[in-house]
Amino acid sequence: MYHHSGSVARQAAGSGAGLLDPVASDSESIVFQRCTWCGTAMYHRLLCPVCQGSDLRTERSEGVGTVRHATIVHRNTPAARNVSLVELAEGFVVRGRVMGPLIGIHSGDRVRLSTAKDPVRGEPVFQLVDEPYRAWT
Ligand SMILES: [Zn+2]
């Protein structure tokens, strides 16, 4: 008696399945490329650094990562600022800034994306993830 509604719902869902999500214009997340051949994640590359494949698909990062290298830059800026390399959970590395005290940012610190594009420099900005304890301090 009521089975007709189910087929209508399936048709509607199927018609939208081929559409790509609009990944640009979202400033609160980082998009990256993943090689469809070997699965390597990369940021702002045209070719896969591992297999040189050019068949890359765009994915959206969760925005959670770990500081791999942190430096303090004094040049060309009125105030010293932090420049860090952050390895995201998906396996790619971005250059950006971590908010917080400059001396309080170290390799291994866990960070979370705050803004994908700093309005001044267009760099991703991260914030330290507050942890209730530190295992090795
Ligand atoms: Zn590859």
Description of the structure:
Residues 29-56 form the ChsH2 rubredoxin-like zinc ribbon domain. This is Zinc ribbon domain-containing protein. It holds the Pfam family zf-ChsH2. This protein has 137 residues and is mainly beta. It folds into 2 domains: 2-60, no CATH class; 64-136, Beta Barrel (OB fold (Dihydrolipoamide Acetyltransferase, E2P)). The chain has 1 helix and 8 strands, in the order H-E-E-E-E-E-E-E-E. It has a 5-stranded mixed barrel. Strands 2-1-3 form a 3-stranded antiparallel beta sheet, with no helix packed on it. Strand 5 (81-88) and strand 6 (93-99) form a beta hairpin. The longest helix has 13 residues, at 4-16. It is elongated and about 45 Å long. It binds zinc ion (ZN). Zinc ion (ZN) binds at residues 35, 37-38, 40, 48, 50-51, 53.
The total count of strands amounts to: 8
Spatial extent as radius of gyration: 20 Å
Residue-averaged pLDDT: 81
Class by alpha and beta content: mainly beta
Strand content: 25-35%
Strand numbers in spatial order across the main sheet: 4-5-6-8-7
Shape: elongated
Distance between the termini: 68 Å
Small ligands present: zinc ion
Query: Quick one: CATH superfamily of the largest domain?
Result: Nucleic acid-binding proteins
User: Can you tell me the number of structural domains?
Assistant: 2
The name of the CATH architecture of the largest domain is Beta Barrel
Taking pLDDT < 50 over at least 5 consecutive residues as the criterion, the unreliable ranges are 6-19, 21-25
Number of DSSP helices?
A: 1
Secondary-structure element order, as H and E?
Answer: HEEEEEEEE
For the largest beta-sheet, the strand count, sense and barrel status come to: 5 strands, mixed, barrel
CATH first level of the largest domain: Mainly Beta
The CATH topology of the largest domain is: OB fold (Dihydrolipoamide Acetyltransferase, E2P)
Percent in helix: under 10%
Domain ChsH2 rubredoxin-like zinc ribbon: 29-56
Protein name: Zinc ribbon domain-containing protein
InterPro entries: ChsH2_Znr (IPR022002), NA-bd_OB-fold (IPR012340), Thioester_dehydratase-like (IPR052513)
